[in-house]
Amino acid sequence: MAFEKTLKELAERRDKVLAMGGAEKLAKRKAEGYLNARERIDYLIDAGSFSESGMFATSHRPEVRARTPADGKVAGFARIEGREVALVANDFTVLGASSSVINMKKIKHVKQVANKRGLPLVLLGESSGARMPDRMGAAGRSIVAQDPTEYQRLRETPWVSALMGACYGSSTWYSAMSDFVIMRKGSTMAIASARVTSMAINKPIDPEDLGGWRVHAEKSGLVDMVVDTDEHALDAVRRFLSYLPSHNMAPPPEYPVPAGSDEGSKKILDILPESRTKVYDVRKIIDAIVDAGSQFEVKARFGRSIATSLARLDGRSVGFIASNPMYKGGALDVDACNKVTSFMVLCDSFNIPIIFLVDVPGFLIGLEGELRGASGRVINWMNAMSLVTVPKITIIMRKSYGQAYINMGGGRNCDELVCWPTADLGFMDPAVGANVLVGDKADDAVRRQEVQDAIAQDTSAWGLAELFEAQAVIDPRDTRAYLIRALEVHRLRMSGGVGKHLLHNWPTSY
Amino acid sequence: MAFEEQLKELARRREFTLEMGGPEKLAARRAEGVLNARERIERLFDAGTFLESGMFAVSSRLEDRDSTPADGKVAGFGRIEGREAAAVSNDFTVKGASSANTNIKKLKHIKQTARRRGLPIVFLGESTGARMPDVMGAGSIGSKDDPTEYLRMRETPWAAAVLGHCYGSSAWYASMSDFTVMRKGAVMAVSSPRLTSLAINEKVDPEELGGWRVHTGVSGIVDLAVDSDEAAIDAIRRFLSYLPSNHTLPPPRSAVPLGSGAHAERILEILPESAHKVYDVRKIIECVVDDGSLFELKARFGRAVVTALARLGGRSVGIIANNPVFKGGAIDVDACRKVVSFIVLCDSFNVPLVFMADQPGFLIGKEGEKLAVTGKVMNWLNAMSLVTVPKLALVLRKSYGLAVSNMGAGGNADELAAWVTADVSFMKPEFGATVVFGVRPEDGAERFAEAVAKMSRGTTAYDMAGVYTAHAVVDPRDTRDYLIRMLEVHELRLSAGVGEHLMRTWPTTQ
To answer: Could you list the residue range(s) of the whole structural domain that residue A312 is in?
Structure first.
């Protein structure tokens, strides 16, 4: 065969790269139940669609060239459900997938192509941070970290990160910049490893305490979803992307409507308690409204008094922002505000209409909130709200009090506002209102009751509808049909389903 | 006299308005040493320049007409050091300056005019929140109809003073403003201590809920705390002196005070020769900038970094400087937030940025991870990449880790100059010895010192200058001249001193 030797070299070199950090390390991972970088890619993408970029890239330092196949970061392009994506998978078996001169060039290239050609970017994270000694000294710095747009996020295309293992350095930074972050239990993410941290603070530190899933899903809010295995994490990447367009210049893809999707509506009256003092889980209401099985909750463990979920209505992506009385009675705290702001930025940046389901007693007031700048968070939400250009529809299910009424779309902050007949509008809970007006002394009891009744009487759905502040009052069971119809009316038909993305450069962490 | 009756009527109505909530309430305030709404306006504006808007506006409720002069919010236009500005001053003696239909219209008009005509707005805050019973019930709450009420596009500077009880609108406007000053003794919160204690069913101390210590030290919403109304208003005048009237203009230029530039030698006395000794960087800044021009923002928040407005050669600059005197200059989450909000301020109003680095890296540990430190570090870098005003960076002493880039190296600033004392590296050499070479102090002093020396190789100012990542090495005493000269080189001459304001919509609380 012509070129036999040359082609043999290609095959040999390929084999070497595919052997990654060596059989021993790979076997160890397998024994622990973890996929390796290339298995992760295979699992994630449509079979046979991977086009690798930089397969023969290695460290620029001659002494480690032979030990750095793909320089520790496997990169390229592939298809997910038939749509092109860009991806980088960290190969921890190669020098801990540490960041070096060459593999940073790979990330940069893949990112540039993704931004220029409108491809989602998937980052499969597991990395130890900057590679030593590559980065030491002034000379080390002169060839890395010289890209002032390295950490710029303009949300041209969706970015998804999966944290699967020890994540320091680039995996951490890219997850902080991503639109959606999944963490496999047992992984850790932090600004510096537990080892370096314990040196700095001079005492031992448990990696799980420092940056495990509980920290990031429940406290920092940097992680949107927690799963048990690498496979689940990759499934979640695929699922998240299914709600989003490949880039911000296209509307989200449409899917067939699963059979039985209209059946759930009847259940709403069973889920919603007749007594206004009883709670319920709003996610069950969302399930009853949306296309069967299409609800995908984001940040389920953070700011739980409000649920943020992607879902589909009649095959089209929507984002739900729904008060959840199950937690804190639905009162909005600082975490809830931050979560909503970040979810609005996501939906608005990728042309996904937003639906508010309202049952809110107000903001959670008190010392803790003030210490965390509650008033500022309320305003960030409102500022974001006023910049949203995708359709916004508000459904007031039960109570909607005070400033929170405005935050949930009232006062013309949405395109359509409708009430269920169970809606209860007012400035605050009637009992608290009466207390404020009359005072809480016992001898005022009669007067207080009068005032309380007067307040309650004036706060129905009908009051709002008569003034055309509510555009409709609907039977809760008609919610699905109403929303589908209203979203058709409000389609962004003059711009091909694409919004203005005024929040596209907003911060990535709140 | 012709029209005698009508003119008498005008005089009578004027008098009614100027009496505000009546002599008794005004006297009580005076006795407490607190200015009233109109005295505050007088203090704010150049004498005789106040043009009132809505002097005869009153409550929309018939029964309150005679008790609501100016409907509790005095509004209009005046000049500050000769430049036109808009202001709203809450009159607490009129129904606690509560928000109601008419005064909401006044606010809206002032805001619109300021935005359209390019005027700064000053909010003199002292208000109880929504007026009862005006805003109770569906009908009234439905009358809120301004979806841009909380939109902030930073066309013009907003400054707010918290001068008493500030709930509702004064809290919201303080949160949205570019600068917020608080008089000690004032209280700002989402809801009043009374309502809060009703809601959470326990006694609430106003100072603890929303006093100056809370907002300058913990929430970070307040930029400056002062002792009197007069000092608060003076601070607003001073703040505005650094900024243009609107974002289409460069900041005003001031004369350079005599004696500026005479303190260069002192820098060498303030900066300790030992790298382990700390100093207060504000003393260095004072030696560099025009005499008396240093105006620090958020001095009690995120203290490891100083953010200050100042002047160099009569031009406004924003200085971001690590301060080793707090936490050794290690950058924590509060410091990150503070820097981002300062970058947004300066970039939105065409104020060039100067970075002064002397930092050991980000403060690592559990606390920071819970507060999403990695997200805040990325917000900072994302903001850096969106800045379009000139950025000049100086490395004073040490600068380690990723924070090197945050402080302007790695191409993140337009110019990078190193003092002769600069030391730039991946991490503190003592940690690096262990992390990179696996040598610990207990392995013997000599071996450890050798490893530390290896880590310290190639980290000097000349090493950086050698690979041209530093564009200059500067004698600390020449800093002022260097900066003034570089600001001339980097003047935005193609756009008449005006940047692109890419972060003009960014959240107002970081």
So the answer is: 264-423+460-489
Interface of A with B in 199-258 (CB under 8 A): 199-201, 205, 209-211, 215-216, 219-222
- Contact between chains at B385 and A376 (C-beta distance less than 8 A): no
Is A290 inside any structural domain? yes
Instruction: Name beta bridge partners: A415.
Output: none
**Chain B interface includes A145 (CB < 8 A):** yes
Q: Does B424 contact A385 at a Cβ distance shorter than 8 Å?
A: no
Q: Which residues of B touch A507 (CB under 8 A)?
A: 340, 379, 382-383, 506-507, 510
Residue B491 token pair: 């003047």
Give kind and range of the element (H or E) at residue A393.
Answer: strand A392-401
Question: Would you say B276 and B324 are in contact if contact means Cβ atoms under 8 Å apart?
Answer: no
Assess whether A316 and A442 both reside in one domain.
Answer: no
pLDDT for the residue B142: 53
Give the confidence band of A226 by pLDDT, cuts at 50, 70, 90: very high
Interface touch A378/B190, C-beta < 8 Å: yes
What is the Cα–Cα distance from A89 to A36, expressed in whole angstroms?
Answer: 9
φ/ψ of B132, rounded to 5, equals -105, 145
Give percent above pLDDT 70 in chain B.
98
**DSSP codes, B314-379:** TEEEEEEEE-TTTGGG-B-HHHHHHHHHHHHHHHHTT--EEEEEEE--B--SHHHHHTTHHHHHHH
Residues in chain B within 8 Å Cβ distance of A146: 410-411, 469
Asked if B451 and B404 sit in the same domain, the reply is no
Tell me the mean pLDDT in the region B236-254: 98
| Within-domain flag for B182 | yes
Q: Tell if the CB–CB gap between B469 and A151 is shorter than 8 Å.
A: no
Residues A435 and A413 in one domain: no
**Which chain A residues are closer than 8 Å to B386 by Cβ?**
152, 505
Total domains, chain A: 3
Q: Which helix (H) or strand (E) holds B39?
A: helix B37-44
With an 8 Å Cβ cutoff, are B219 and A372 in contact? yes
